[in-house]
Design brief:
The complex is a heterotrimer of chains A (342), B (643) and C (181).
Chain A lengths: L3 H17 L13 H35 L14 H36 L8 E8 L2 E6 L8 E4 L1 E5 L4 E7 L4 E3 L8 E3 L5 E5 L5 E6 L12 E7 L1 H12 L8 H12 L2 H4 L1 E2 L4 E2 L14 E2 L4 E2 L2 H14 L12 H12 L3
Parallel strand pairs in A: 1-5, 4-10
Antiparallel strand pairs in A: 1-2, 2-3, 5-8, 6-7, 9-10, 11-12, 13-14
Chain B lengths: L2 H4 L8 H11 L5 H4 L5 H30 L9 H36 L8 H23 L24 H29 L12 H32 L13 H34 L7 H15 L14 H31 L6 H24 L1 H7 L3 H31 L5 H27 L16 H31 L57 E5 L6 E6 L6 H18 L4 H16 L5 H12 L1
Antiparallel strand pairs in B: 1-2
Helix pairs in contact in B: 4-5, 4-6, 4-16, 5-6, 5-7, 5-8, 5-9, 6-7, 6-17, 7-8, 7-17, 8-9, 8-10, 9-10, 9-11, 9-12, 9-14, 10-11, 11-12, 12-14, 12-15, 14-15, 15-16, 17-18
Chain C lengths: L1 H18 L41 H13 L3 H4 L21 H10 L14 H14 L42
Helix pairs in contact in C: 2-5, 4-5
The chains are: A alpha+beta (342), B mainly alpha (643), C mainly alpha (181).
């Protein structure tokens, strides 16, 4: 009786596990790309093996305890053990160890094979993206054959569906880790090293990722999005990101640009076309085209942006952007200007 | 009663002899006397109390973390404070609780008793190791309480923990805490090896050493080989931070990955250092409460040795995401899977012992049986992590947090509670309350699963670890809340245990020599043992000393009983080798520990005091090791002179 | 004896508290450039009482390291190098043209100075300027060793501030009798 409780709990939990882990953004078992799919297949193989082993071991233990339990007094010296019975059991243990070895070989082989398969994706001309980690945001460069075609953005990565993409990782400060579980496992961004991660999306969608190596105060708020879209939409997006936004025509937006250039904003951020070219913070040239701000911490709305500009420290305490107490009409104009940066 | 059993009871004729033994072997009482104790049981009890106190402190920190994580975007703890708390929680549990309790406390208390001798070898080194450990732990907590707690994770990767990204003294305190605790562990490791090899009861040949003692010896060897790696990496970090070396500075030829290699070369054996004593405890308890000798003694022993060896070849599985070459990583996948065979062997042997024995479900046995449910689940999720592709998805997520809590709590804390219920009667002379023990067990078991099982799912749903909060938009809130509820049950369980402990000191049933009918030598003496451990030093006739004892099992005779004389035996068959006099109570260990502490702590703040303080340490060591005649010989010479 | 030990321990603890502070949103001293902070050693008659050190960030190691980060990011390096100077004067030595007190350095950064020092008024937030001030003063060893930054993860260009010996610039705000040698 005593041992049945754990069995029931275990069954309940396993049920939960099977149902609950499988869906959702940023879920490893919800693969949307070929690399993650290969990993997921391996996962299910290994999981079913270990589940089977677990059930067998628990059944063995539960039965052993249940059938062998006694309430006899403890102080007598126990009888000597029958050596022949023990020899029989030696064979049982031998079989169990043998089965373990076989299962281990199966898991080893499948792991190595999968590891080899995900190491890279064959491609003559992959989309090459440099992801440079900062405390606590992601700098994204799309390499191009001509230098002036390089796209620089932040915290949001677009990729074409069905085409291999190689992410080259680097870090400006400490170790971070790039992890978009729907598409692939993680790869560390280590200062002084460059790692490569090959991904390919199978379907369109927006996939969230997050930094997966503790990197300081705001490790918790260092997320990003990978947007997989059709190759045509992707090329259009890329071309748009390369372009320089036109100067603002609306007088309020014009005033907003002046606010930007005369306040601390210009010391850290680039907005191509405005003259601001600092590279300390994320590139804001097309800020209004992004879904989120502050490394996937907040949706990109006017109100959120206002709060972020005025006092980012209350949203993401310890991040490197200082508070900017602006006068309300300056702030309003600045927001209007930033909204023109599609 | 056999002479062996009689060694625990005093007859009228023997009383004066026993009084004399007591006078020779006891440690002084009183406040100042406390600092001069060298009796292994006294030091062992101190280790247990201190380590348990750190366990409670680490648990409080964990509860704070769980409160913060109970809801998304919670503001209970600021990010800086949360980072300090999770770092100190991890460092406490790994450095200040797990190794000191599982290895140092239990080995220091039990190994000399189990091998049938009067004290652990190097008694003053034993005392010194305790004081050094205590200061290291206090250093870490004094840091936490002055906003100087390390906030870089218990493994403190560079460059985050380096001079550029962690200003102030936080990481320096962490690094020196490591130096203290590893020095303490190394000292105890040396003592355990020598005691187990050279101080056994005659007749206890190598193949008759109890599994528990073998486990501790194997762990001791692991400590000797693993601890230097972390002392090296933490000292290199400290030097980078204080004297401007470039060990981990990429720009000047150093390498942050070097830190990870050095740390994990220690870090992986560390978890086996914590886990193998757990298996040793489980072997002992299962044998006693199945009323038969452990099945597969040789297999279990070889499995522990194999685990120890192979455990040194696994460390890169903590670094699979760093981008090391695929071929090299595969080697570590193979090694990580191979160690499963060794652990599996132990598990199968225990299962056979259960199957062919008569199982008695007292609290120690319940905790040992929980091992099967908890540790094995953790071990099997560990198999998933051995595979590089799968690990790339679950590394640094809450899946890993779930895994290591299952293996550490299942492999160490559950067996530890079992060990406390099992050996407490020996330590205090009274049994803990059995009903309370069962409440403790079930509350802890259910609470533990409630807290840590959902973390598997959280990890698979994408929640990374070491985050002080998480977005409301992610589907993580409910499971986190459930996990926090489990903490309530675990807290209740631990409180019941503490209450049970204090209750049993006055009201527990008197235990007698051997309440469980167990087989190892510590049960041959009274509960608690006298200061001289055994009235008559025993000899041994088989693997299970008390069960295999002859009706007229001989005892050891011929030792001088007017001084602290101890029998040393040969390594292979425990034939008597020589007699040796052990030192008595001495203030030298505490003085050396104070000097060492001053040396270590001053180097956190300034390099100028390095030479003066190391000279101070040298002076105390000189005083300690200055050659002198053994006290009994000096006394005898004096007596001859005076005649 | 125990009371003195207690006081010493308390002092150590409090020192630790201040050094490890991480101020993310500290209220800064007022915007106005300071009145009454003289830049010259010589004055007729006697010097008035001492103006206290106005920089709250000099006790916090985190703030000083932030100052170091900002010093490089805002390109102070471009003119002052890592303290050795170039286009601009060196910052490692004891010669301060406009005074070495925190308020002096703050004013220099905010107002700019003739012959090439830009004015950063409105471009660098107050709190960050005070952090840079703290760092600049640490470059000549004015700050305690445990608060000054250690070596950075870059190529080695000069001794880290924590290992820099303390320079002795002229003390401009201290009455004659209180000057430290």
């Amino acid at each position: 009786m005593r041992r049945h409780g754990p069995f029931l709990t275990m069954a309940l939990y396993l049920g939960l596990l099977l149902l609950a882990g499988c869906h959702g953004n940023q879920a490893a078992l919800n693969s949307k790309g070929i690399q993650a799919a290969r990993i997921e297949r391996l996962w299910w193989l290994m999981f079913s093996i270990i589940l089977g082993v677990y059930v067998i071991v628990l059944a063995w233990a539960g039965t052993a305890v249940f059938r062998a339990r006694t309430h006899r007094s403890e102080n007598e010296i126990p009888p000597q053990v029958d050596p022949i019975a023990d020899q029989r059991m030696t064979r049982v243990v031998g079989v169990a160890i043998g089965a373990t070895v076989v299962l281990i070989f199966v898991m080893l082989t499948s792991s190595v094979v999968t590891g080899h398969a995900i190491a890279n994706l064959a491609s003559k001309n992959p989309v090459t993206i440099d992801v440079i980690g900062h405390q606590w945001w992601w700098e994204v460069h799309y390499e191009a054959t001509q230098a002036d075609q390089t796209v620089i953005t932040a915290n949001e990565i677009h990729i074409p569906v069905g085409q291999p993409v190689v992410i080259k990782t680097a870090s400006q400060d400490v170790i971070h880790s790039f992890w978009a579980p729907n598409l692939h496992g993680k790869r560390d961004l280590i200062p002084g090293y460059q790692n490569a991660l090959w991904i390919e999306a199978d379907e369109e969608g927006t996939f969230r990722g997050q930094c997966a190596e503790f990197c300081g105060h705001q490790h918790a708020h260092m997320g990003f999005f990978v947007v997989a879209e059709s190759p045509e939409k992707f090329q259009a997006w890329l071309a748009h990101q390369v372009s320089t936004p036109p100067p603002p025509s609306d007088p309020i937006a014009k005033h907003g640009e002046e606010v930007f250039l005369s306040h601390p904003c210009v010391m850290c951020h680039t907005i191509r076309g405005s003259g601001a070219g600092a590279k300390l913070g994320p590139d804001l040239t097309h800020i209004a085209s992004r879904m989120t701000i502050a490394a996937a911490t907040l949706p990109n709305t006017r109100g959120n942006l206002a709060g972020w500009i005025l006092d980012s420290q209350s949203i993401k305490p310890g991040n490197k952007m200082p508070p900017n107490p602006l006068k309300s009409d300056d702030l309003n104009a600045l927001l209007t200007y930033l909204e023109t940066l599609q | 009663m056999t002479p062996l059993e009689q060694s625990g009871t005093a007859t009228a004729v023997e009383t004066s002899r026993l009084e004399k033994l007591e006078r020779i072997w006891r440690d002084p009482s009183g406040f100042w006397g406390w600092f001069t104790h060298v009796n292994h049981r006294s030091i062992g009890k101190r280790y247990m109390v201190t380590a348990f106190a750190f366990f409670l402190a680490g648990g409080v920190l964990a509860a704070l973390m769980r409160i913060q994580l109970a809801r998304p975007e919670n503001h209970f703890l600021s990010p800086d404070l949360y980072n300090q708390i999770f770092t100190v929680h991890g460092s406490t549990m790994m450095f200040l609780f797990a190794v000191p309790m599982m290895f140092e406390a239990l080995a220091v208390y039990l190994v000399p008793l189990m091998v049938g001798n009067r004290n652990i070898c190097f008694p003053r080194l034993n005392a010194y190791s305790y004081y050094v450990y205590l200061v290291g732990g206090l250093l870490l907590y004094s840091g936490l309480f002055t906003n100087t707690g390390p906030d870089v994770g218990w493994f403190a990767y560079v460059p985050l923990s380096g001079p550029d990204f962690t200003p102030g003294k936080r990481a320096d305190i962490w690094a020196q805490m490591i130096t203290f605790t590893e020095l303490s562990a190394l000292a105890v490791a040396v003592e355990v090896v020598i005691t187990a090899f050279k101080m056994r009861a005659p007749g206890m040949s190598l193949n008759r050493i109890p599994i528990f003692v073998w486990g501790m010896v194997i762990v001791a060897f692991m400590v000797i080989f693993a601890m230097p790696a972390v002392m090296l990496s933490s000292t290199m970090l400290l030097m980078d931070r204080t004297v401007n070396t470039h060990f981990f500075n990429q720009a000047e030829g150093g390498d942050p990955i070097l830190y990870q290699h050095l740390f994990w070369f220690f870090g992986h054996p560390e978890v086996y250092i914590i886990f193998i004593p757990g298996t040793a405890i489980v072997s002992t308890i299962i044998s006693t409460f199945s009323r038969r000798r452990i099945f597969g003694y040789t297999a279990i022993l070889l499995a522990m040795v194999a685990t120890a060896f192979v455990g040194f070849g696994l460390w890169v599985h903590h670094m699979f995401a760093t981008g090391l070459p695929q071929m090299g990583q595969s080697f570590f996948t193979a090694a990580s899977l191979m160690v499963v065979i060794a652990t599996g062997t132990q598990v199968f042997c225990w299962l056979v012992t259960l199957w062919t024995g008569k199982v008695i479900l007292k609290p120690p046995m319940l905790f040992a049986l929980a091992f099967f449910f908890v540790f094995i689940m953790g071990g099997l999720t560990g198999v998933l992590m051995a595979s590089v592709p799968v690990d790339l998805q679950i590394h640094d997520t809450f899946f890993i947090v779930a895994h290591f809590h299952y293996v550490l709590i299942g492999g160490a804390v559950f067996p530890l509670f079992g060990a406390l219920y099992y050996w407490m009667p020996k330590i205090t002379g009274r049994l803990l309350n059995e009903a309370a023990g069962k409440w403790h067990f079930w509350l802890f078991f259910i609470g533990f699963n409630m807290t840590f099982f959902p973390m598997h799912i959280l990890g698979l749903r994408g929640m990374p670890r070491r985050v002080y909060t998480y977005p409301t938009s992610m589907p993580w809130g409910n499971l986190n809340f459930l996990a926090t509820l489990g903490v309530v049950l675990m807290t209740a369980a631990v409180l019941i245990f503490i209450a049970n402990f204090f209750w049993h000191l006055k009201r527990g049933e008197i235990a007698g020599n051997n309440p469980w009918g167990a087989s190892t030598l510590e049960w041959a003496t009274t509960s608690p043992p006298p200061v001289y451990n055994f009235a008559e030093l025993p000899t041994v006739n088989g693997r299970d000393a008390l069960w295999d004892a002859l009706p007229n099992q001989p005892i050891v005779e011929g030792l001088e009983e007017d001084c602290r004389q101890v029998l040393m035996t040969k390594v292979m068959d425990a034939d008597p080798d020589c007699r040796h006099e052990f030192p008595g109570p001495s203030p030298v260990p505490i003085l050396a520990a104070i000097a060492t502490s001053i040396f270590f702590i001053s180097t956190i703040f300034t390099a100028k005091l390095f030479f003066p303080t190391i000279i101070l340490v040298g002076i105390t060591l000189l005083i300690w090791y200055w050659p002198k005649r053994q006290p009994s010989l000096r006394r005898k010479e004096r007596e001859i002179w005076e005649q | 004896m125990s009371k003195r030990l207690l006081l010493a321990a308390a002092a150590l603890l409090l020192a630790g508290c201040a050094r490890e502070q991480r101020n993310f949103r500290e209220a800064t001293p007022s915007n106005a450039t300071g009145e009454g902070v003289q830049m010259s050693e010589i004055a007729p008659g006697h010097t008035a009482e001492r103006i206290p050190n106005a920089n709250p960030y000099e006790d916090s190691a985190y703030s000083v390291s932030e100052g170091k980060r900002l010093y490089e990011m805002y390109n102070c390096v471009g003119c002052h190098a890592h303290g050795g100077g170039g286009i601009g004067p060196p910052l490692l030595d004891a010669k301060w043209i406009y005074g070495s007190e925190p308020q002096n350095v703050f004013d220099t950064i905010v107002e700019g100075r003739p012959n090439g020092m830009p004015s950063f008024r409105g471009k660098i937030p107050e709190s960050q300027i005070w952090e840079i001030v703290a760092y600049v003063r640490s470059m000549s060893g004015q700050l305690p060793k445990d608060v000054s930054p250690g070596r950075e993860d870059h190529m080695y260009s000069k001794r880290p501030e924590a290992s820099t010996p303390k320079e002795h610039p002229p003390q401009t705000n201290v009455p004659e009798g209180q000057k430290q040698k």
